[in-house]
Amino acid sequence: MRLFDLLKMNKDIENSLNEYIHKLEKYKTLKKGQLASVADDDLKTAVMSRMQEKFIEKRIDENEVMESLPIPCRYVYACCTVIDEINNGGLTQLFFNTTKRFVSTAQEGFSVIGDEDLSRIMKEAIRIYEKNEERLAKYNDGTVESFSASYKEKLFDEFDNEFVKRAIDFDSLLVCYIRKNENAFGD
């Protein structure tokens, strides 16, 4: 690759990041009724930005904020958070981190939003986690080494690949669900 190609690629990445940051800022004060003017491609960013801002504004426990949100918002937040965590480090990481508190809501949300496959995978992963919770506890000493060692258990390997493949199609269902429940999103 030539130097000019690298410089152009870096500039493209920088422009994409700046555009994304601008969208996050724009949507963190989302009002009811504004979603109708938001493009489908930006819908997930818009609602997630607003909900994430609520966590920052309230400066309270995530569970309290979740309980204060309308049910459609809870489902969207939990599903998107769980998908992001799994895409980042698999189900092992999901159950290792505090995001595991969203797994039941996400499992129900996947079903309500229309993806029975993701709901089924999540339900089975929860079952396996609960069955092996004591076994996994030995890795939860707060060190990177223990966390890395937890992957040797290979409890979720078969589900990781299936989940990631299936989650690719989730965004289209998510857009439809948000559109059907627009009145739940925004202040």
Looking at the structure, what is the overall shape?
globular
Count of individual domains: 1
* Poorly predicted parts: none
> Count the helices. How many?
10
> Which architecture per CATH?
Up-down Bundle
Mean pLDDT over the full residue set: 84
Residues in β-strands, percent: under 5%
CATH fold category name: A middle domain of Talin 1
CATH class reads: Mainly Alpha
Task: Tell me what you see in this structure.
There is one protein chain. With 187 residues, this protein is mostly helical. The protein has a single domain, classed as A middle domain of Talin 1 (Up-down Bundle), CATH 1.20.1420.60. The chain contains ten helices and no strands. The chain has helices spanning 3-27, 40-58, 62-68, 71-96, 103-113, 116-131, 133-137, 144-150, 157-167, 170-180. The longest helix has 26 residues, at 71-96. The model has no long low-confidence stretch (mean pLDDT 84).
Describe the SSE topology.
Blueprint: H1 3-27, H2 40-58, H3 62-68, H4 71-96, H5 103-113, H6 116-131, H7 133-137, H8 144-150, H9 157-167, H10 170-180
Which descriptors apply to this entry?
single chain; 187 residues; mainly alpha; A middle domain of Talin 1; 10 helices; 74% helix; globular
